[in-house]
Amino acid sequence: MSNPHIIRFTLKQHTPLIHFQSQQAYAGLRATEVKPKFDRFILERLGAANILPTWIQGGKKKTNGAVPLRYKMIISNQYVKAKTIERDRKSAPPMFFGNMGDEYENQLKFLSWSFQDSQMTLTGVNCTILLLNNDEMNGKTLKQIIEENLEIFFFLNNFGTRQSKGYGSFSCYSINENVVSNNYPSQYHFTVPDSNPIEALNKINLFYRSIRSGIHDGRADRDTREFTTTFYFKSLLFIYLNTFKNLKWEKRAIKEKLLNWHQSFQQQKDSWNSANQSFDANKNNSNAVLARDMLGLSSEQQWKSYGKKISKEHIPMNEQIKIDRFKSPITFKPIKTNNGYDIHIILQQIPNAMYSTSFNISNGRDHFQINTPNSFQFSLPDFLRWIFNPINIDITKHVTTGANNNTHQTLIGIYSQLAKQIKP
Questions:
Q1: 303, exposed or middle or buried, with CB in 10 Å at 0-12, 13-18, 19+?
Q2: Cα(337)–Cα(154) distance, rounded to whole angstroms?
Q3: Average pLDDT per consecutive 10 residues, the chain (424 residues; last block may be shorter)
Q4: Residue 321 · residue 403 · CB < 8 Å
Q5: Which residues, 6+ apart, have CB-to-CB distance to 229 below 8 Å?
Q6: What is the pairing mode between strands 340-347 and 330-337?
Q7: How far is CA 344 from CA 104, 300, 341, 389, in A?
Q8: Helices (DSSP H) in 8-135: which residue ranges?
């Protein structure tokens, strides 16, 4: 008979964890990060009315709204490998920029892997939960509630820095020595036929750039610094807004109002045609919205080609709380398989506060205000469903420079998989 006050579970690690502990270079997954996140997860799934006061430390919520449940979580990080992230930009892991800047020398960053054995052959960690209460509510104890939610919690969440982009991915392997089913409930996923986790993260980066910023790769001549484009893929968010919603995103407005972007240059850069889409580069900005930040608020952006830093500050309306941070509503969950990696796309709901609200955009001297779209103008599920449909976007014909190269073929493969998963 199992101990009614102990839960033992094992996690498998799929991608490296990024951490900053320069004095503790071999730190791995931490209970201090996992437990508060798991407590919030249980509260959201059950609702406050279904949480016994005796399950809560102190018997009530904290003043910050947290509900710490009465158990202790222990995560064993006995065997850990940590690799220093070098300052060299070329060797940096994808989607991570913390190795740049003056503060780097005083705060090293690491890619961390945890192992269950001293031979370091099986990635993951052994964990224990010690329960301090076994009262029942609606026929279930806190132990049963935790056991029922561990697998789905670790599937829906990553940990550490850049977690929404696939870093720090763990999944439950066993609970109380019973191997779990690993039946992952994501609506969209694509396969990367490569067992290298960095390659899996590279593919996530490529896909995310294709939907949000677009991809403009190339090289600069050493002598003249003239830039030659090798691959150009127009942002699918831009296409969606322009074609389907008759809207403009904020990028053009920023260029015109804050970066002294001339009309002739505007026409050269933004007029874009393909077999399926045609855009008018001369439209004004009266229908412009702050769109890219609906996929994660970036309060500061470096426009390197212009030598400018652009900042964004929320302007609260009435009694609205000021928005300083909004993480991406898209989380990528890489799961290693026998054939490489399955990349699951997990969607969170965009908070109502992010819709139809105003931001001040500034270059430090000049500024202007722009609103985010309303919920009719932008819905994340509708956006993905639209761009994944080959009737709307033909990925094979979407590239103007570098068509059919390796990058283009990779994107064609990803979108062909996603097209088959569209639901009515």
A1: middle
A2: 16
A3: 86 89 64 95 90 82 73 87 73 64 58 77 86 86 94 95 94 93 86 94 96 90 81 95 94 86 48 43 67 91 82 90 92 95 96 95 91 96 96 92 91 97 85
A4: no
A5: 216, 217, 218, 401, 402
A6: antiparallel
A7: 32, 28, 9, 18
A8: 31-46
As beta bridge partners, residue 192 has 341
Specify the long-range contacts of residues 275-280, CB closer than 8 Å, at least 24 apart: 275/394, 275/397, 276/393, 276/394, 276/397, 277/239, 277/242, 277/243, 279/242
Calculate Rg over the CA atoms of the chain. 24
Residue 366: how many other CB atoms lie within 10 Å:
11
**Quick check: 248 and 287 in contact, CB under 8 A?**
yes
- Whether 310 and 301 have beta carbons less than 8 Å apart is answered as yes
Residue 374's CB is within 10 A of a number of other CB atoms, namely 11
- Strand ranges in 208-307 using DSSP code E only, listed in sequence order: 215-220, 227-233, 248-249, 288-289, 300-303
Which whole-number Å values give the CA distances from 76 to 10, 28, 125, 144, 158, in the listed order?
A: 10, 9, 6, 22, 18
For 142, the token pair is: 């806190």
SS3 content of the chain, % helix, strand, coil (to 5): 30, 30, 40
Q: Which of 143, 122, 125, 124 is nearest to 133 (CA)?
A: 143
In order of 103, 265, 366, 369, the CA distances from 332 in angstroms are 28, 36, 37, 32
Q: CA-to-CA distance for 26 and 38, rounded, in angstroms?
A: 23
The per-residue pLDDT for 292 is 94
Distance CA 128, CA 126 (A): 7
For 12, phi then psi, to 5°, come to -105, 135
User: Which of 347, 348, 367 has its CA nearest to residue 358?
Assistant: 367
Residue 178: the pLDDT is 93
- Contact call for residues 136 and 108 (beta carbons, < 8 A): no
Residues in the chain: 424
Strands of 201-321, DSSP E = 215-220, 227-233, 248-249, 288-289, 300-303, 308-315
Amino acid 273: pLDDT:
46
Phi, psi (5° rounding) for residue 241? -65, -45
Quick one: pLDDT at residue 261? 59
The token duo for 130 is: 């010690």
